[in-house]
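Revision sheet: structure tokens.
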Amino acid sequence: MYIHHKQILTAGVPAEKATKAIIMLHGRGASAASIITLKDHLKLDGYAIFAPQATEHSWYPYSFMAPVINNQPALDSALSIIGDLVEDIKQQGIAQENIYFLGFSQGACLTLEYVTRNAGRYGGVIALTGGLIGEQLINENYKGDFNQTPVLITTGDPDTHVPVSRVNESKAIIDALNASVTLKIYKGRIHTISADELQLANGVLN
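Predicted:
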């Protein structure tokens, strides 16, 4: 098993000059460099952009619907990397309500898992094809108040990695923590990011 080491790719405005920050989390087999290219399609003027790199290009080794213990210690290590990065961003003068998250696939699952375990007011959360992590979801893991943080969750139906049933189950938990959730399910869409999803994401980022 593996753990993650702090490797953060940055772009956009330097944090000390930025008004907002976004944390972008890549999918399995991808990289920080690949996810950060989405900046060319997103309205990120004035944003400091942070993209952590997963060890072995994977945030956790097995399916997000495997028993959580099977994905340890990688999963806890990944959540810790995000938590440390959030604190670093705050220390550079960007308030939590101006911190945004975006993830795709495995990165979207990790994004939702982090923010829902640490619910609070964020700028916005964009989970492109993802759901909360675990064989069964344990409500006690998720606490706090999103205070109407906008959360966008998208997926295909069917998706080869992310069942719609888990997306719906995740939405219900996030709704209960007072988020403002938009769920968009695309019939027959392959496991990718569509132009329509990027347009919806820009609605969150504005």
